[in-house]
Amino acid sequence: MKGTIKIASLFLVTLFAIFIIPKNIIQPVHGRSTGSAAFCPNWYDPTQDPPGELQLAQVATEHIAYFMNQVYDYSILAINDSAIVPSYRAAIQYLNCEDEVAFFSKGHRDLWPDEIYDHMALFDHYGNEVRDSEDIYPYSSGKFRFVFLWHCETAEMYPSTDDEGMPYCFTHNNNMVLYGQDNGYNVFLGWQEGSPAFVTIIDQQYPWGYWQYAHWVYLFFAAMSWGWTVEGALSYACNIIYSQDFTCTPLYYWLKVWGCEDICWPLY
What we know:
- The chain is α/β, with parallel strands linked by helices.
- The chain contains 7 helices and 9 strands.
- It has a domain at 33-192 and 255-259: 3-Layer(aba) Sandwich (Rossmann fold).
- A 6-stranded mixed beta sheet has the order 2-1-3-7-8-9, with helices on both faces. A 3-stranded antiparallel beta sheet has the order 4-5-6.
- A hairpin with a 5-residue loop joins strand 5 (119-123) and strand 6 (129-131).
């Protein structure tokens, strides 16, 4: 297990050294306040988390927060070994005071209420449910322009009919289309069915053979911090790993993008 963690972390550290990140390419818009958050509560589940996943997810989330911090005025980093992990509700409520928000989270999810299961909840660091209509929707708004939830099935339950599902409850936008271009002011990225572990080796990559999903997410967020659009960042990461654009890879049928793919950080 320790060898797996060291190798996975080494790949990311090496990648971080190779892809040098230009700082402050995007300047904050004068008179506007922007905020971001990178959450890795990743409540440990031995039936779903492979060896090394928690440690690698933490390293990757730290890098994501770094990229966000290059662009946004205020950033929250919540990872497993933080002395105090802020609650989703507190973070969302605080960020909602900003003019524009970017939000990333990695972890697991649950369905509720019992026997009906028509709503979704994210698990926080302590294994508590963060419910869509109770803990997210009342404290968020359309100012959550960019949301990426690396939790299983988070792209589902949309459009919303009863304040259910993560895409609507984070963005308050029920008019987002799948892989939209020039379509509104919000974008939500989530998974159809299960989300892959960061330590998992990516299938059908070419011409290499050692890329993990942690590498892909690193490359995607690096490109976002350089000022690329969501569409451009997706294809940037996929061209390096698959040697193909996003639309030609298996991810296209698994990672769903609701809303405007032309959005960049922050939205001008």
